[in-house]
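Re: that backbone. Tokens:
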């Protein structure tokens, strides 16, 4: 017996239509899922700024052209009245007029003593230069003084051994004063080495006592500068 197919019972007849319909439904559901938006309920949250609650101090209100407060009233001064029966001490004002019994001294009668200032006078400008021993009869006492100073330095000169071995040399500037009594004082040195300075001071302190310099016939202190050169011979 031959089986016959029913055309209405053919499942493949509308397969394309079913496929397209399902595809459209899937795309529609995907689009709705992607575009779906939800919003929170505004009644559940407080959207106020509450600025007033954050202020810790009240803001003062300043009105323009406000006149300043009036000054406090000044208490009246209380004046105490002294009864006439109370004794009142009188203030005695002494007269500034001179007493005729006192002796009035004339300014011209007061003797003043002149105080001589102990100011040193330079060797160049002093009237009478200090006299080096041996220059008493010299005509040019300044030139004789410098010549004798040179001879004195050459006679007492001694090079320090340590500086000689180390090759230290240089010039020591010496400044000293010839005192009012002819002695040597206030010696100051400046040089490249302490031992060289000490040697220069030793030479100066060996200077003999001199005749002091004079200004207007009065002995004065006379400063004198003398360089001493320490140089090694090659």
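Recovered sequence:
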């Amino acid at each position: 017996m031959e089986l016959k197919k029913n055309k209405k019972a053919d499942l493949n007849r509308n397969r394309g239509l079913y496929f397209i319909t399902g595809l459209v439904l899937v795309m529609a559901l995907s689009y709705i899922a992607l575009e779906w938006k939800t919003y929170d309920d505004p009644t559940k949250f407080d959207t106020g700024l509450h600025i007033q609650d954050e202020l810790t101090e009240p803001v003062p209100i300043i009105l323009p052209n406000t006149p300043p407060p009036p000054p406090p009233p000044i208490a009246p001064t209380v004046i105490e009245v002294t009864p006439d029966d109370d004794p009142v001490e009188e203030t005695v004002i002494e007269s500034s007029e001179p007493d005729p019994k006192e002796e009035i001294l004339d300014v011209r009668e007061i003797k003043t003593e002149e105080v001589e200032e102990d100011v040193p006078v330079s060797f160049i400008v002093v009237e009478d230069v200090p006299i080096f021993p041996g220059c008493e009869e010299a005509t040019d006492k300044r030139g004789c003084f410098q010549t004798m100073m040179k001879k004195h330095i050459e006679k007492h000169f001694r090079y320090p051994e340590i500086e000689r071995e180390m090759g230290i040399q240089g010039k020591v500037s010496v400044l000293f004063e010839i005192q009012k009594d002819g002695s040597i004082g206030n010696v100051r040195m400046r040089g490249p080495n302490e031992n060289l300075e000490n040697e220069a001071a030793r030479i100066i302190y060996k200077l003999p006592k001199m005749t002091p310099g004079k200004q207007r016939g009065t002995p004065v202190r006379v400063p004198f500068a003398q360089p001493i050169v320490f140089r090694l011979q090659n």
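The radius of gyration is 60 Å. The helical segments are 15-35, 51-54, 141-156, 161-166, 194-205.
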